[in-house]
Write a structure and sequence with these properties.
The complex is a heterodimer of chains A (about 325) and B (about 600).
Chain A (H helix, E strand, L loop, with lengths): L2 H25 L7 H6 L6 H10 L6 H13 L13 H36 L4 H15 L2 H15 L17 H39 L2 H8 L4 H13 L1 H12 L6 H6 L5 H10 L3 H29 L1 H5 L1
Helix pairs in contact in A: 1-14, 5-6, 5-8, 5-11, 5-14, 6-8, 7-8, 8-10, 8-11, 9-10, 11-14, 13-14
Chain B lengths: L2 H20 L13 E6 L14 H10 L4 E3 L6 E3 L2 E7 L4 E6 L13 H14 L5 H4 L2 E7 L2 E6 L16 H4 L4 H4 L13 E7 L3 E6 L12 E6 L3 H9 L5 E3 L3 H9 L3 E6 L4 E6 L14 H10 L2 H8 L5 E2 L25 H10 L21 E7 L5 H14 L3 E7 L1 H9 L5 E6 L6 H5 L24 H12 L3 H18 L2 E6 L2 E6 L3 E2 L19 H4 L1 E2 L11 H32 L1
Parallel strand pairs in B: 1-10, 1-11, 15-16, 15-17
Antiparallel strand pairs in B: 2-3, 4-5, 5-7, 6-7, 8-9, 9-10, 11-19, 12-19, 13-17, 13-18, 14-18, 20-21
Chain lengths: ~325, ~600
């Protein structure tokens, strides 16, 4: 990998990020809104207080002035204060980021590994009952809206069987420590994690299956078998590594989206992550929060894309010279 | 380690690390025998700082954390002693002198004196604290001695001697500058009420501990844990399976079903909230000229069948209403005389419009402005954020068509609707209000000076753009009338006048749906008596009065042992299945 190749990719990503920074400012101002009135409707505040709030929020300045101020702040990594809570946007985000990474990160990891595994089984045993069962089951879960699947699991396992809690992250106030605390967290993570894992399994299974089927027609596999290699070895050493390339792209992009959270599932299981924070911020609209959140989401996707570009160049030498 | 085993190990390790990472920091541990009340709600707090927060859930925190100088009776909001045990009026009702209880203490043991009260009132006035200003804008406080203080109002103030602002601890707040106050987190947890905030984990829970120094004594409940749910159905499930003892803001769709559940009582608590159809009455910017005509607004009032909306849209869970409700206390709502009521009567509505000269001159089924003017087509705004927005619009536009009034519908979210109303882009919409206990704030919204203007289309509260000089005059009178009975009479007169002028068609009084378990605590109190909610009421007296029935404090669900057993079982089954597959694969390979 040449230095030139890497620097070109990095510069490209930086340019995209810069564009996003500017775009974010205008995106949330396209629809006209009045955050002060929206946040303070039905509250007994005087005209003077209203003006003071407009001033505190920086909304009394013209759009170009607000834009310059926003750029200047963002350049200094200052994302401002949330209109709603008056706390720094960075602290609002950092309070939630761990939860989102846990839930969406673990489910993405699980759906990727299990999906790849199921895809391999389905392809290797194509047109057998195993293939039909795997493909149709994962397709069924993929076709279900995640909020619906989440509600079903909640109704079954939290409401009827009472095996798992109805939401949240831990049993609040239980004061549990050590292993029992970990078990408590695992109990809370189980249903939302299962929902997301099942919902995204199909994507990986199908892509892995079709990619492996393509590879299986290749001459070098016939050669490998002709050499007398065992079936499992042919698959592990020769077929799967070559079939993994499309999955790498999909997984990397999906990991980029991990930070954006999963609004529907977070909301069903009262899992206070970044997805919910975004939803709440849109309502006011809490402009500084939205700008901060969207910058973070875009940056995550841009970094993931950059990673996949570089990884591809490493995995597939043809890309480097292209 | 083979490749597959290694990847399984890595996944498990990542899982473990992530779980440890997500653990909320320093949550206060509950001792085994602590009596814990668990309350579910659909809203997190925005800020526990009483000079910043705005949400109902934040008010619940302050109502528990801060005792007020005067308190309100649970039954009827009557003014009763709070931190002050007595008070006397002087100077023609402009000055009140309060005597504090002896030996008052903050939850941290510091003495609570007249100095704290005077500090709060004077600083809130000079810095215009958001949640305080409307109460104390004209009041100056003075310390007489540690247990005596005086409040003097520069104008006659009928709200006195009531002083329901949250008294903050001077020894904490004096360290916070005026500039620093807006971003002050308010997590000090030092208060004078029955419970004080111990811990807040955003989006997850907030926990309040019993205050041993509360002037009424230590509550029987040791700790209250609030859990905000983003899925109200999950909250209902948590109440049913015993994870919760009470729930606020139960969805109306599951309310009836909850009422039938074992050990659960549903409460439809009225605290003054009402829903209305608002009509742009033309005193502001824009608006359809037809609605400026009182007769058109009255005809529309006759054309809206509140009974049908109540039974078909609200499922019979609300109360059909005539006039606005300016207070959580029903004594402020007048009875509209039968001869003044706009009963549902489409024929009468048509007659009124015919007599007023709005005829359908071009024969398209829609009435025209007099002298062959334009069709009367009203711009109806449907609120996307209300679950009732669409069905109400469906009914209302249907009835309007029957009296020859056309509508063009546009859907708005609340954020977009607010400026659209101010700019006069909307003629009609359905929305609602929830008033305070004193009627003054709600009444103030309908003054002429609250109508949106071209210069300031966002600085308004009068969302019907309705201006009536008589109403304004009466508003000023009630605002300074110190005789309670006379003030009530003036307020009744104002509301009746507003009803006749019909800028609003008030549909119903909308309750707050709550539910609580009967097998854990007794002593739930409704505020006001019989009709009010049991929690999230104005001063929320229930929490202090609750007594436990049994000591069991953990909710339903499985114990840790059973869960470990399930996980182990699942691993064995999955692992066994995996091995089986492997074996079959191996033979398949060999066969080839």
């Amino acid at each position: 990998m040449t230095f030139r190749f890497v620097s070109r990719k990095v510069l490209g990503s930086l340019a995209t990020l810069l564009f996003v920074v500017c775009f974010n400012f205008f995106l949330f101002r396209v629809v006209e809104s009045d955050p002060v009135s929206a946040l303070f409707r039905g509250r007994n505040i005087s005209q003077q207080q209203r003006q003071q709030l407009q001033h505190d929020f920086g909304l009394d300045k013209s759009k170009p002035e607000q834009f310059v101020r926003y750029l200047n702040q963002t350049a200094h990594l200052n994302f401002g204060f949330s209109f709603e809570t008056r706390q720094p946007v960075t602290s609002e985000i950092s309070a939630r980021i761990g939860r989102t990474i846990t839930l969406v990160g673990i489910s993405t990891l699980l759906s990727t590994t299990i999906g790849i595994w199921l895809g391999i089984i389905a392809a290797w045993r194509r047109n057998t009952p195993t293939d039909y069962v795997v493909t149709s089951t994962t397709m069924a879960f993929y076709a279900m809206p995640d909020f619906w699947l989440g509600l079903l699991l909640l109704a079954a396992f939290a409401e009827s069987f009472r095996w798992f809690p109805t939401g949240g992250i831990v049993n609040v106030g239980s004061g549990a420590t050590g292993l029992s605390h970990l078990v408590d967290e695992a109990k809370h993570l189980f249903l939302p994690g299962l929902t997301l894992t099942l919902a995204y399994l199909g994507e990986y299974t199908l892509i892995m299956r079709s990619s492996l089927l393509d590879t299986m027609g290749e001459d070098y596999l016939t050669l490998a078998r002709a050499k007398g290699l065992r079936d499992a070895t042919v698959r592990r050493r020769h077929a799967v590594p070559n079939a993994l390339l499309p999955i790498v792209t999909l997984a990397a992009v999906n990991f980029g989206f991990v930070l954006s959270g999963a609004i529907a599932v977070e909301s069903i299981y009262s899992w206070p992550g970044l997805g919910l924070a975004t939803y709440n911020a849109i309502r006011a609209p809490d402009l500084p929060m939205l700008q901060g959140l969207f910058l973070l989401f875009s940056a995550a996707v841009i970094v993931a894309n950059l990673a996949v570009d570089l990884l591809y160049a490493y995995l597939d030498p043809r890309v480097r010279t292209a | 380690m083979t490749g597959r085993r290694r990847s399984v190990f890595v996944v498990m390790l990542a899982l473990g690390i992530a779980l440890v990472a997500v653990a909320p920091s320093a949550s206060g541990a509950t001792k085994k025998n602590d009596i814990v009340l668990r309350v579910g709600t659909t809203q997190d707090i925005d800020s526990p700082n009483p000079t910043v927060g705005a949400l109902v859930s934040s008010y619940e925190v302050w109502a528990l954390q801060y005792a007020t100088l005067t308190d309100k009776a649970a039954a009827d909001f009557k003014t009763i002693p709070g931190l002050a045990e007595s008070w006397t009026a002087s100077n023609h009702g402009l000055t009140y002198t309060y005597t504090l209880r002896k030996g008052l203490k903050w939850s941290d043991g510091q003495p609570l004196t007249a100095d704290d009260v005077v500090y709060t009132v004077n600083r809130a006035r000079s810095e215009q604290w958001t949640n305080f200003d409307s109460t104390i804008a004209h009041i100056t406080a003075k310390v007489i001695d540690p247990t005596h203080l005086s409040l003097t109002s520069s104008i006659p103030d009928p709200k006195l001697p009531i002083m329901d602002v949250y008294i903050v601890p001077k020894h904490i707040y004096e360290k916070v500058t005026k500039k620093g106050l807006a971003s002050y987190k308010g997590l000090d947890g030092i208060g004078s009420g029955p419970f004080t905030l111990k811990h807040w984990s955003k989006g997850l829970s907030w926990e309040m501990d019993a205050n041993p120094n509360y002037w009424r004594g230590r509550p029987a409940v040791d700790r209250v844990i609030f859990r905000p749910f983003t899925n109200a159905d999950a909250m209902v499930a948590a109440l049913k399976n015993g994870e919760l003892d009470a729930a606020e803001n139960v969805p109306s769709s599951s309310f009836r079903q909850l009422q039938k559940a074992k050990n659960i009582v549903g409460v439809a608590g009225q605290q003054g909230g009402f829903d209305e159809i608002s009509m742009n009455s033309g005193a502001g910017v824009g608006g359809n000229p037809a609605l400026k005509d009182l007769r058109v607004r009255q005809a529309i009032s006759h054309a809206i069948d509140k009974q049908t909306i109540e039974s078909r849209v609200y499922n019979g869970l609300t109360t059909v209403a005539d006039a606005i409700s300016p207070s959580a206390n029903p004594e402020w709502i007048p009875k509209i005389p039968a001869d003044k009521r706009f009963n549902f009567d489409l024929a009468k509505a048509n007659t009124i419009l015919d007599d007023a000269g709005y005829k359908d001159t071009n024969g398209n089924g829609i009435r025209n402005m007099p002298k062959g003017g334009a069709d009367i087509t009203l711009r109806y705004a449907e609120r996307s954020e209300s679950p009732y927005g669409a069905p109400i619009r469906e009914f209302v536009t249907g009835w309007l068509r029957k009296i020859g009034i056309g509508t063009s519908v546009k859907v708005y979210n609340d954020t977009q609707l607010t400026p659209a109303i101010g700019k006069g882009d909307v003629d009609m919409f359905a929305w609602g209000w929830v008033p305070f206990v004193d009627p003054d704030p709600e009444l103030s919204y309908f003054q002429c000076n609250q109508v949106p203007t071209k210069a300031d289309p966002s600085g308004y509260s009068n969302d019907a753009s309705w201006c009536n000089p008589t109403y304004d005059k009466l508003y000023k009178q009630q605002n300074t009338e110190l005789d309670h009975a006379k003030r009530v009479a003036i307020v009744h007169q104002m509301i009746t006048l507003m009803y006749e002028q019909a800028p609003y068609v008030v549909l119903d009084y909308s309750p707050d749906f709550q539910a609580y378990r009967t097998d854990r605590f007794t002593g739930w109190v409704k505020q006001p008596a019989n009709i009010g909610p049991v929690i999230f009421s104005n001063t929320s007296p229930s929490y202090f009065l609750l007594k436990p029935i049994s000591k069991a404090s953990s909710g339903g669900g499985l114990g840790a042992g059973a869960v470990i057993a399930i996980i182990v079982g699942a691993v064995i089954i999955l692992g066994g299945g995996g091995l089986l597959l492997r074996r079959r694969q191996a033979t398949a390979g060999e066969r080839e």
